[in-house]
Amino acid sequence: MATRSPTPDQHDVEPDRSPGSRDQGGQDISRRPLHGIRVVDLTHVLAGPSCTTILADLGAEVLKVERLGVGDMSRQVDPIRQGESYYFAGLNRNKRSLALDLKRKGAKLILEELVRRADVLVENFRPGMLEALGFGYEHLRRLNPALVICSISGFGQSGPLREHKSFDLVAQAMAGVMSLTGEPGRPPMRAGVPIGDVLSGVYGAVAIASALIGRMTSGRGCVIDLSMFDALLTTLPYFAGRYLADGDLFPPVGSGDPKVVPYGAFPAADGYIAIAVFGDAFWPLLCQAIGRPELAEDADLAKVGGRLERRQEVEYLLIERLKDKTVAQWCERFAAVGLPHAPVLSVGAALDHPHTQARRLIVEFEHQKCGKVQAVGSPINIDGEPITTSVRPGPMLGEHTEEVLKELGYDAATIAGLRTEGAIGS
Q1: Catalytic-labelled residue, pool 41, 72, 197, 230
Q2: Which of 375, 369, 403, 405 has its CA nearest to residue 389?
Q3: Which one of 52, 128, 152, 303 is CB 3.0 to 4.6 Å from 41, fit for a cystine?
Q4: At 51, phi and psi to the nearest 5?
Q5: Are the CB atoms for 75 and 396 separated by under 8 Å?
Q6: Known active-site residue 324
Q7: pTM of the entire predicted model
Q8: How far is CA 79 from CA 129, 195, 242, in A?
Q9: What is the pLDDT of residues 19-74, one digit of tens each?
Q10: 7 has a pLDDT exceeding 50
């Protein structure tokens, strides 16, 4: 029989908010907004882990429960260092890992104990799988009425596509995003970044934080249902508005905009530069910068409607003017007149940019297998300080299983028995 401390009532648990609490990098974690919040993380791949990483960066204690012997499938994503994923180490920073076989009774009892003591549970299994494991919403609420439960999936917990298998590509295709992405007359393309995964993770974190605030007055938790499909539809406010109002559908226009000209990426002598004449006031500035001030006096081109009618002429003019100077030279000219613009940078150039460094967006930490790991940190700054100035690396599979079980009150003999049973791993 396991030797465990009595399970406290959810509202009798006082989080440790001691001002001296610090992370491995020396930051005072008690100043982070979610310090003292406990999260049971049943997520994998990207959408769910993106959500729980935001919570962890904000100070929550995140316990990542992973499949015994397999773990989160993103542990297999390159680059691999000594058998460990460099990618995983950055994405799952500031978390602890337990390896459990949730098909075994001993592991189910552990998860129940974690749920009783938690504030939040996040999962991104396919709909119905959590219930199949014996942890449907009603059971979770019986264990802990104050628990905030967040489910993230491809198409949500209801609707005809509920059980449709999905990854970011599938959600982008179904949500109309791919129909708007790419060059005119070319096949549809997905956005180059996994926007559905990341955006649903962000919405999940916002919803959870809001639910925790609501719980302060109600005393009860709630169930949050998020899908990548739903999240991607929110990226279409203009396109959806036009269709819902007038039935208009827009074709893809590359890097441009269907109702703004010039707006997009244009070739210079040594690369591409993005120019945004979003508003008629910027048109004379562009004309001045490219050495064609007389175009600003053309009444047909002064307004966006006229430029739309003469889109090909305007864009051809820009291409011809820009090809004789480098991106850096054009950036200097556009900056001098106050025109919105940017060089089209590679991922490497963006990460190495002085502004990225000044904003302290690249975090660095030591991983026991991967060595020195660098990752993009959180964009959140609080009181002038980035919340990921220092972080803990993503955990090894099951690295903290025994540690967490001891915190739950399990003795050494019981832990050994659970390992022999195959309920836990490390």
Answers
A1: 197
A2: 375
A3: 52
A4: -65, -50
A5: no
A6: no
A7: 0.91
A8: 30, 21, 43
A9: 335 454 455 667 789 999 999 999 999 999 999 999 999 999 999 999 999 999 99
A10: no
